[in-house]
Design goal:
With about 625 residues, the chain is of the alpha+beta class. It is built from 18 helices and 21 strands. The longest helix is centred in the first third of the chain and has 23 residues. The N and C termini lie far apart (about 85 Å).
Length: about 625
């Protein structure tokens, strides 16, 4: 009996030790990263229950963010918070101590919450403020229908912490549920399972059952409606935009099917797009299940829908397999551009894909020139410690990343490369990775097994573009360049040769004007093709840039430029035009327009243009 009791005691002691060891060992090891205060190896969030009210009168979101946590025997958990009013915090339903640490202008404050080793849930009672950067509150006149207000969020890269207190690092993935109360005449949608019609009381419930990074948690609220394209694709938009958006994006189901043939099953059940008001700062944002899109892609002829292919591709590269830190951003975007080009080739042919790739290559050349004084920023793997991760969101990640992958494809062969990529997505699904892990996977699963030597380290860790780069050729663009040259020599252009041009050919045409093209030639082209009044936003943007470059003022182009900059908030478009003003010593002209337009822009765009023009708000 004594021996039995002794043995039982040993078993209990061993079990207790194992349980303690289990508690002290995190489910995964997180790497240190410079853009979050969180210490996930000590205590990490795993699931969010959000319960909020959206108040358009006060322009405040208020409520609770409640988290299930994995606790590695920690006495505190740290969340990221910026410009939030924290009212109280609970641990397992009981009020607990908390404090906001020192404020950092980029990162905000660490929200330090006292917990016990056995704590399983924390709840933060909070509200947003008028400084919240992720939110843009729009008055009715700033919307398409001009009848009801609108709200949308933009979380990438580190702005989710400005509307939800959270561990705002891409390597920390969470599932979430949300209950959202909005005015009864409006609809709320999120990056989750979404309603297709309005509720009677303005209360909406959401579920995101797959774990996602915090920057992908998003909400939009407005007078919107839904129109399906297939049983798993469709569009949300304001009423006046709904049919236009539905026509423009009618190939979405074909895009999803083409993507699945390339790299495996779509993992998010639903792929919808919401067309936001024009102040949205990006072309698109790949929020899972619900891509946010700018109305500037509504051209009436489906010619700019490569953007939708890009955001769809993010469902694999970015959402399914996510960069662990913002230093690894190229893993999100370089892969996505490559995947986008493959979708476009599958649907619209190699000519269209190569034209898009050539434009990207030109964008890359322009970016390299702009970064010639900071060559380290032309590396794929970045060091953004102490900087805003937005600094790395440029053509290097997108187009150098694409060029690296295309060069790899041409080196090893498309068939082998496709098998490699499909396996990469499947084996890393719903996880995060970094550059070093990718290189190891690449070596083991593609290069070494096929006996291939490739200068991976040079591509990733060195500035500039290696000599073995893939050369992207477009016969159609060569024809366009020939027409530009003939026009400059003769002042004549055969309109019939341009009759079937795609917007990409028009963009290439305009972007290749020589520096010494005179204003009379600009006027002749404008009179012939009505470029100043183009209904295609991309063509209009590059034409306005050239008008500024060549000091062209005909056909009321100055008024059109001001209207464009006042109505459109897409950062790429407006920064291109403001940059042209600055490059041509017309900053004063730019500031006159910017002071009128600034209130229409999201904070993401404002921050970029403020810095570019040296604008200081009063």
């Amino acid at each position: 009996m004594k021996k039995a009791l002794l043995l039982l005691g040993c078993v209990i002691l061993l079990f207790s030790s194992c349980q303690k060891a289990k508690k002290q060992t995190p489910l995964m090891t997180y790497i240190e990263e410079p853009h979050s205060f969180a210490k996930p190896n000590e205590a990490v969030i795993t699931h969010l229950d959000l319960d909020i009210k959206v108040d358009f009168d006060t322009e405040i979101i208020s409520g609770t963010a409640s988290y299930l946590i994995n606790n590695n025997d920690a006495s505190e958990i740290i969340l990221d918070s910026k410009f939030l009013e924290i009212e109280k915090v609970q641990a397992d339903g009981t009020d607990t101590n908390f404090k906001l640490g020192a404020f950092d202008s980029q990162l905000g404050n660490p929200l330090k919450i006292a917990i016990k080793p056995e704590t399983k849930r924390i709840t933060v009672f909070y509200k947003t403020t008028d400084k919240t950067e992720a939110l843009q509150w729009l008055k009715p006149q700033q919307t398409a229908d001009k009848a009801q207000p609108f709200l949308f969020t933009q979380g990438q890269a580190i702005l989710t912490r400005t509307w939800i207190p959270i561990q705002d690092s891409p390597q920390i993935r969470v599932t979430y549920n949300a209950k959202v109360a909005v005015p009864a005449q409006l609809m709320a949608v999120m990056s989750a399972e979404n309603p297709k019609t309005k509720t009677a009381d303005g209360v909406y419930n959401f579920k995101m059952t797959q774990p996602i990074s915090p920057y992908l948690i998003a909400i939009a609220v407005g007078d919107i409606a839904y129109k399906p394209i297939s049983n798993r694709t469709g569009v949300y938009a304001e009423k006046s935009m709904l049919d236009k958006a539905h026509f423009e994006f009618s190939d979405m189901e074909n895009m999803v099917a083409s993507a699945e043939k390339l790299y495996g099953k779509y993992a998010w059940e639903q792929f919808d797009v919401i067309v936001l008001p024009p102040s949205f700062p990006f072309g698109g944002m790949e929020n899972p299940r619900l891509t946010f899109a700018t109305p500037t892609v509504i051209a009436g002829d489906k010619s700019l829908t490569s953007l939708i292919a890009h955001e769809l591709a993010h469902s694999w590269s970015g959402n399914l397999v996510t960069n662990a830190t913002w230093d690894d951003f190229w893993l999100n975007e370089g892969f996505t551009v490559y995947f986008e080009m493959r979708i476009m080739e599958a649907l619209y042919g190699k000519d269209r894909a190569n034209m898009l790739a050539r434009i990207g290559r030109q964008d890359l050349e322009e970016e390299l020139e702009g970064l010639k004084d900071s060559p380290n920023d032309t590396k794929l793997k970045l060091d953004l410690n102490g900087r805003n991760p937005d600094d790395g969101m440029n053509s290097i990640a997108y187009d150098k990343g694409y060029l690296f992958l295309r060069t790899l494809e041409e080196t090893v062969g498309r068939e082998k490369f496709d098998v490699f990529l499909k396996n990469y997505f499947e084996s890393h699904a719903f996880s995060t990775t970094n550059t070093e892990k990718f290189i190891k996977y690449l070596n083991e699963n593609l290069l070494e097994k096929n006996g291939i030597t490739f200068n991976t380290e040079e591509w990733i860790y060195q500035p500039g573009i290696p000599e073995n780069q893939a050369i992207i050729v477009s016969d159609k663009f060569e024809q366009v360049e020939s027409i530009v040259q003939d026009f400059v020599k003769t002042n004549n252009i055969d309109q019939e040769k341009t009759n079937n041009w795609t917007p990409q050919e028009w963009v290439h045409f305009v972007r290749n004007f020589p520096e010494d093209m005179n204003t009379e030639q600009m006027q002749l082209l404008d009179n012939t093709f009505n470029l100043t009044n183009s209904n295609n936003s991309y063509i209009a943007m590059v034409w306005y840039e050239q008008a500024i470059n060549h000091d062209y003022h005909g056909n009321n182009v100055d008024e059109k430029i001001e209207t464009f900059l006042t109505e459109v908030g897409r950062r790429w478009y407006v920064s291109t035009i403001y940059k042209a003003f600055k490059r041509n010593n017309k900053t004063d002209d730019a500031l006159v327009i910017y002071k009128k337009a600034r209130n229409n822009y999201h904070s993401v765009t404002v921050n970029t243009i403020d810095a570019m023009l040296g604008f200081v708000s009063e």
